[in-house]
Design goal:
It is built from 2 helices and 6 strands, in the order H-E-H-E-E-E-E-E. The protein is largely without helices or strands. It has a 6-stranded parallel beta sheet with strand order 1-2-3-4-5-6. Helix 2 links the parallel strand 1 and strand 2. The longest helix has 6 residues. The protein is globular and about 40 Å long.
């Protein structure tokens, strides 16, 4: 049966920390500036840029936080797994309908914000995200939610 999430869905675990040290680091919000020193970019905010596709961010090997909120994205590239240090990923208010299985290879992911999209299902492998502390997935169009999500600590 088709339904729409009307309230927030959070996975909250005991002892949760949101990497407060990460919050003290500078945020780059200009891609051209960030490209001048990719090794120093830990937090990148590309929200509100009307992006229709994710620019190639593989140069940012140290990236731990990526904000792609409020764009026009309808998919994620499979190469996103190459951002292996990523802890926070914000994709809210886009046009995403599904997630690639590749998202499950982001083993350091702690916070995933995917609210206000058109997502109908999440990959079953989401249960492999053992570091995931918060999933904000409200206001989507889920047909199916992975059973494996219930196996997370």
């Amino acid at each position: 049966m088709h339904f729409v999430f009307l309230c927030s869905f959070f996975l909250l675990f005991s002892g949760m920390t949101f990497g407060q040290d990460l919050d003290t680091l500078p945020v780059f919000d200009d891609l051209d500036e960030a490209l001048k020193m990719p090794e120093k970019v830990i937090r990148l905010d590309l929200s509100k840029n009307k992006l229709k596709e994710v620019p190639d961010l593989r140069l940012f090997a140290s990236l731990r936080e990526l904000n792609l909120s409020r764009n026009k994205l309808d998919s994620l590239p499979d190469w996103i797994v190459e951002l292996e240090k990523l802890e926070r990923l914000s994709l809210d208010r886009n046009k995403l309908e599904h997630f690639p299985n590749a998202i499950c290879e982001l083993t350091e992911l702690r916070i995933l914000v995917i609210s206000r999209n058109m997502i109908t299902w999440l990959p079953e492998c989401m249960g492999q995200l053992k570091e995931l502390q918060m999933l904000d997935a409200w206001s989507n169009e889920f047909f199916r939610f992975p059973d494996a999500m219930g196996t997370l600590p």
